[in-house]
Structures are given as C-alpha cells and as structure tokens.
Amino acid sequence: MTVMDMALRSVVKDVVADQSPHELVLLDVMEPLDDAQITAALAGRGRDEEGLGFGLTEVAPLVTPVVWLVLNEFVSRGVGTTVDGIVVRARRLFRQRSAQPRSLTEPTLTAEELNAVHQRIREKATEAGIGTEESQRLADAVVARLACGRRPEPDPPQQGDGQATSD
Amino acid sequence: MTSVESRDLAGRASTRRFLLLVTVLLASSTVLLGASVLTLLSLTSLPHCAAEAGVDVHTPAWRALLAVQFHADLAGCRSDAARTAVYASLSYTCLTCAAALTLYWQLPRWRLRRGRLPLLLAADAVKTAAVTGPPGAPHGRESLPGHLAGLLWQAGVPSTSAPTFLVDPRAMSVGAFTFGRAGRYTVCLHAGLLVRRQTDPSRFDAVVLHELAHVRNRDVDLAYLTVALWRVFLALVLGPYLLLNGWLSFQEHVLGTARVYWDGGAPGPASFALSAGLVVQTYLARADILRHRELVADHDAVTCGADPSVWGAQRSSRASGATRTRLTRIWRSHPTWDERHHTLTHPPAADKGGTKLQFLLFVTAYVTLLGTLVSWLDNGTIPQRLVRSLAYLATPLIVATLIAIRPRRRPQPLDLSPAAPAGDGPSRRPAGVHRAPRTRRALAVGSLMTVLFLVTDPLAGIGDGPTGDSGPYSLGDLWPVRQPPEPPRYDAGTRVRVGAWYDGGGADLLRRLDGALSAAEDRSTGSGRTRRCAALERTMSETLTFPVFPAHEGAENWRLLLTWTTKGYAIQCRSGSHDPAAGAWEAFTWYRSAQVALGRLDDLRPATTSRPASGP
C-alpha cells in the first residue's frame, strides 16, 4: 500500500467533507492562513461581545476545530504517547503546507498511534458538545482517513456479489 | 407592518438620550478637571501666595479658609487660580474629545489587527456583488457573496456604508456582531452561524439583517463613540481625579495632614459620591439606550424580511430567577428574548411614556447639567451671558428628550397606518431615518423654547451670590440677638491673654470693623459702593490675619463675626450681577448678624482694659 503526502489541512478537509460538509465553508474561509494561524484561530476562545451583537448564545458544536486541533496536537506532541520517534514520524507525515508539497515514502501509522488518535478525537468531540455516537463516527472517519493515506473513495453501488472494489 | 411611530417608540428617543449622555460627560469633565486644577494649585501656588500675603494657613481651618477666599492680598492669586482652572478644564476637555475621536477612529483597526479574523468578504467585493448580481434573485443565495449582497439590498444599506464581512472561527455560537466607524463598518459572523447558512437560512438571514440594521441606523457610530468617550473620560479625567482626591483625603483623614484649598478645590466625600453617581448613571444610560437600539434593529430586520419565529424560538420558558433577571437586566445592553419577541409581535399601539428608569436617568442627567451650569456661574471667570447662552442652546435636546420619556397617565393612541406597502423590492425597506411626527413636534417645541430663553434670559441673576449657604433668615443664625451681657468668668491667665488681645489691637479692630459694617449697610450704588467695598475688604483682611480671640467664650463669636461679614461682602461686592441692588437686602441681613456677634465680643472685654470711644 503506497502512502501519499498527507498535509494536515488535506486530512481535515477530507474528514469534514465526509462528516459535516456544511462546515467546509469555514475551511474555505481560512484557506489563505497558514497552519499555525489556523491552529491559533481555532484554539483561541471567542470573545464575549456585549456590544452590537444579535445576542444568540446558542453554541453549534463543530467538528472542524476538533479534528484540526487533535491532529495538530498529534503532530506536535504525539497525543501523549511515549513511543520514541512518533513525533518525528508524524511531523514528516503531516509536513507543514508549502507551495510545493513533497511526496514521502514513510510507513503508515501503527495501530497504537491510530488508537491514540481515535481516543483523543472522541474526548475532544465530547468536550465540544458533540454526541457520543457522532463522536464515535467522527473518530472512525479520522482513523480511516489516516489509515488509508488518502481520501476514502465513496462506496460503490451495491452489486449482486456485494463485493466492493479496493485498491 | 408596524408604523413609523411604533418604530419610534421602540427606540424611545435613544439618539437624543445618547446625545444627552455625551453632553453630561463633557460637562462633568469640565467640572472635575476644574476641581482637580484648583486642588493642584492649592498644593503648589497657594502656600507661596499666602506666605507673601502674610496669611498663616496653619491657623484654625475656618480662618485659613476665609482668608484664602477673602483676603485682599490674595485676590490676584485667587483670580489666577480660577482663570487657570477654567482654561485648563476647557482645554483638557477638548483634548479629551480629540482623544475620544481618535480612539473611535482607530479602534476598529486595532481590533482587526488584534483579532486577526479571517476575511470573508471585503466591502468592495460586497458592493461589486450587489451591483453586478440580480438583487434578491433566488440563485444569488447559492454563493456566499451573492447571499450577503442580496441581504444588503434587502436591508437598504447604502453602498457607501457597505460593511466588510469577517468570520470569527473561535466563536461557535450562532451569532454575529458589528463594529467599526463611519465609512468602515465590519460585520463579524461567528463560525457557528456561517456553517448554518444553508442548513438554517432563516436564522442566518435574521442575524445578518439585524446586524445590517445596526449599520444602516448608524448604531455603530453612536455606540462606539460613546465607548471611546467613556474610556478616555475614565482614563484621563475621572481616574486622575479620584486618585488625587483619594490620596489627599487619605493624608488628611488618616495621616492628619491639614491643608487649605482654593474655593472649589477641596477634596471630600462629595467628590467620590459625584464620581460614583457619574459611573452608575453612564452605565445604566448606555445599557438602556443600547437595549432600545436592539429593539429597533429587530423591527427593521423583520420589516426587511427576517422571519420573526427566529426570535420566538429563543424565548426562555424558565420561570425561576425572574427577580434576578430584572435586577441584572438594567445593566445589560440586550433586552430579553421575551421582550424582543413581544415588541415584534405586539408593536406598541399607544404611547405610555418612558420607563421609570429612563425618567430617573433623565432627571439625574439634567441635575448634573444644572450643577455644571451653577459651577461655571459661581466661578465668575467665564462671562455669565456666555454660560447662560450655552445653557439655552442645549434646551432643544433637553426638552425633546423630556417630551419623549416623561411618564404619561393616559396613553396616547398612535397612527398605525403602514409606512410602506408590503412586497418585494425597495418598498419593503423600513422607515429609516424618517422621524415620527412626535419627534418632530418635540424638537420644534425645544427650538421654540430656545428662542424664547435667548430673548427673555430667565437665568439672569443666578450665581450672583454664594450658593449652598443657609441664608441669614433662619432664626438660629439671626438669634440670639444681643442678650443681656454676662460678666465673663476668666481665670487669671485667660484674663491676661484676653486683655492683651484687646489692648494689642483687637479693640481698635473691632471698632473699625463696626464702622465698616455700618457703612456697608448703605445700599446706595455707584462709586460709593465701590469705596465701601474696598474699605470693608481692607478691614476684613486685617481681621483675617489678626490672632484669634484667646478665650473659648469669644472664639465662636469671632468666627461668626468673620464668617457673616465675608458672606455679606461676597453678595454685595463680588457678585457679577448687573444690578448691584439685587442682593443688597441679603447682604444687609448678614452685616446685621455680624454686628450682633461683634457686640458680644465687645461685651466679653474684661473691665480692667480701657475701652476706646466707639464710632465709625
């Protein structure tokens, strides 16, 4: 199985497109920013504007910040794992966006690493107010994306033998 | 569709109240700054002036205070201090205004730089989309620029005021807010709202139309001008004033440091009470004004096509905490959802007048302005005619505001005819800045009163004499009249000191003062008055530097003698009134009271001392 270059935002975009496509507009708006700026923007706490605002305080839990911040945390600190080399390898996998991204031939993440990501996604999603089932589905989608190394293909139409194509 | 008058009542003269609030802040600024300058000059120039005049500022506080106010040799310093206070306060107030305008102008830029909010749609792009795209066309909503441009057109925002749209990715709430300055408005959509543009379009439209109503109604300018002015006022005026007064009060009351101040520069509890009142007044007034601007924005949003059910969905069904909500509600800049929905679905059909809070805030603002007026008149440095003219020019604003918010026993019905036919297109736009008939009538009445005041000058005569003093008409001051003299009971030592006081010039001084008081009671005007005032001032100045009566039985009479003499002198000889005879009777009563006290002192003289012949 070959591994393609996985830019952080590419992974996030794929997952968001799959799980919560209406949030893609948020990523589109932040497209001109670099990864560090996006991380700072998503991690910061919104100001409580008492001025000329509409006054709605209802919070809409979004998956984009959850996925981005967890994967960014994983790149930065290895999601709390103590296995040596994870951070170095993860950083190579999620190389910062540049004008000419380079291809890599690194191996995929280990099962332990994927489990760590899965757990962290569920934790963060629950903190953000996303329901348990949705958090589970989101974590599965992120792990699936990381494991495949590219954007998951849409499910093919069901055939008589029920076999799906694979690459 | 509600009428223009209903919209007007929803706002309840918020623009006028904004302007009144700004006027109060500027007027208060001059008073606080003037007092601060006088306080500083009391610490710097007053000791030097007093030393040159031979006035001992460390003598009993009451005499030092009278000497500072009335001693002839301190007149030059007094005038200089008053003039410096006036010019400094006016200049610094202008500087405060300039700083506030600068802050208002720069604040949006700093805010954008600090927030680093991703740009959604620049103002020019919005204008382009609004011009090139078919307005209100359904397919325009598929793209974000087209959708926003369509809402701009619906809201009737002129192209010159087209805002920039930003998104705050940190804010997960389904809301937005508006900020900026004239010609550079910004609507910031929360990420939670942006992602719901297509899944919950009615809410998206309602929020954006509400914010665009703020832009169109110039709420951004008023709100942020007030914010800028208030912050600058706190930093440059009220803060330093409280620090200075606090430090000096601490020194006086805790450390026991006694000081004498120029008239109007003494720190005390009144200064803190005034400051606290000003803070509370400003916060409550601003919050109340913004709440009503929100109601008007809601009204305009619905008029432009927003779905009122968006507001209805936010209504709280909780019954508990109602009392706490009422108490805290007056401090918040947003009305409750119940109130907002009720105003939309049940627009006012009768004018019941303003709320009690609004009327109370108006009264406190008016009292503050009156206090400022009296302060300027008392100061005497600014020509009184100028001060009165400025007061008259503020009449339209004050009268028009009072007409709008005064409570009414009988609600007055409104004309609820629609302002514009319903339907798509520009005709759906709200009434905008068109004033309701009530507003026009209120401003017309106020303007008429200004003309009347300028012609009749009803305030002439105010500030002709000392204020805040109890008049001499109270029995406690005039009486006791000269009681039958009682022989003084001195011990040996006191008898010697008292005798030395009389023989050392006290008796002569009492005689000359008696003569000056008798002459001053002549109420004729002209050059004779000027001479009498000068003679009284000279004699009074000597009295203020003469040692205090050395026995308890006479010290109080000595104090009353000087105090009442100076009061009469202030009325007769220092008033700026063009009619010197106006205060003559009041001055006369003070002089007679002073002579009663003088007579008591005469009676306390020991029999062993020689008595000079009495007479002027």
UniProtKB/TrEMBL annotation, chain B:
Keywords: Hydrolase, Membrane, Metal-binding, Metalloprotease, Protease, Transmembrane, Transmembrane helix, Zinc
Pfam families documented for this protein: Peptidase_M48
Gene Ontology biological process terms, A to Z: proteolysis
Organism: Streptomyces humidus
Stretches of the chain forming a coiled coil according to its record: none
Region (Disordered): 413-437
Cited CDD domains: M56_like
Upper classification of the organism: Bacteria, Bacillati, Actinomycetota, Actinomycetes, Kitasatosporales
Residues that span the membrane, as ranges: 85-107, 222-244, 359-377, 389-405
Domain called Peptidase M48: residue spans: 154-346
GO-annotated molecular function: metal ion binding; metalloendopeptidase activity
Keyword tRNA-binding appears in the UniProt entry: no
Signal peptide: none
Cofactor requirement: Zn(2+)
Protein name: Peptidase M48 domain-containing protein
